[in-house]
Prior knowledge:
mainly beta, Methylamine Dehydrogenase, Chain H, 5-stranded antiparallel beta sheet, 35 strands
Amino acid sequence: MKTIFPKAVLLGLIIAVSIVACSSGDNGEDPPPPPVYHYYAYVANRNSYNMSGYAINSSTGALTAIAGSPFPIGYYYSNSIAVSPTGKFVYVANSMTDNIAAYIINPATGALMVNPSSPYAAGSYPNAVAVDPAGKFVFVANIGSADISVYAISSSTGALTEIAGSPFPAGSFADYVSVDPTGRFAYVTTESPSGVHGFAINSSTGALTEIGGSPFAAGSTTAVAVDPTAKFAYVADGMLNIVSAYAIDPSTGALTEIGGSPFSAGSGPTSVAIDPAGKYAYVMNDLSHDVSAYAINASTGALAEIVGSPLSTGLGVSSSFDPTGRFVYALNSQANNIAAYALNASTGVLTEIAGSPFPAGERPIAIATIRVKQ
């Protein structure tokens, strides 16, 4: 017997079939595959004048040298390295030749190609380089000329163009620069006067305007880091062996030292690394050859040393988290290698992973990691 459906029922069936067909993709095609990501680490080797590149195993944290690594820098005293958050470009500060070298990342392999217009002139003895979170600007702290050079990044080529008004004056011995996660403020450590200079960043031009009350008092500063929430800043003091903690005014960027600060560190702290979740801070102690580990109070910013701290690492000068926040890499500039640790997200305890340490060039001095979309 032939079944006859009312028109309303037939219309509903037609719509349902159409929805199912459309859900499989445009014109009935399957949806596109999920994006493929690669994880890379780059290490500037000060005395071998080159840069080591590694593929990061996102499951184990192990490092494997990229084909063609190490990549020649060709300049003396490469003290700092920064990677564009777009995953396309790498920038290196070359202190003795007063310039910035730029590289283009091959997203599929991690190999580096020198930007054809590199290097770019900087101030006297550029010691540190940072890129803003939007990947629009490069900031360079120049020790010798006591200023900050700022460059606009070409989104297509990675080429640098110094912006109007650059360089911007900073205190004497401007040796470290950090940009907060919002991209609104930059902080520079200086020795004369000793402290931290704070600057507001013009989001359109990259121009710097010194924040009221700057410089903010600190000891013999060696590094500054801002937590991922942009609420707190942490400053390492290499002479007094302490870490000072500051609350950041969200409107002005001004720094106010928090209660209980400063906090004890090892001997000769040189750098501060904060995990991407903002729960833990790790301070590399150059002279005591270890790393101090702290839990961060999310409300106050206060630091509490965690179980197992300090952790012996050798002659460590710099460290970095991998993009997933699961692993920490510490440079040993005396043994010319990289110690790799797995992070216990619940306790902050670090455990050295299988295969660590991994070989680097001669006197590895700076490290940066990045996730790249292929």
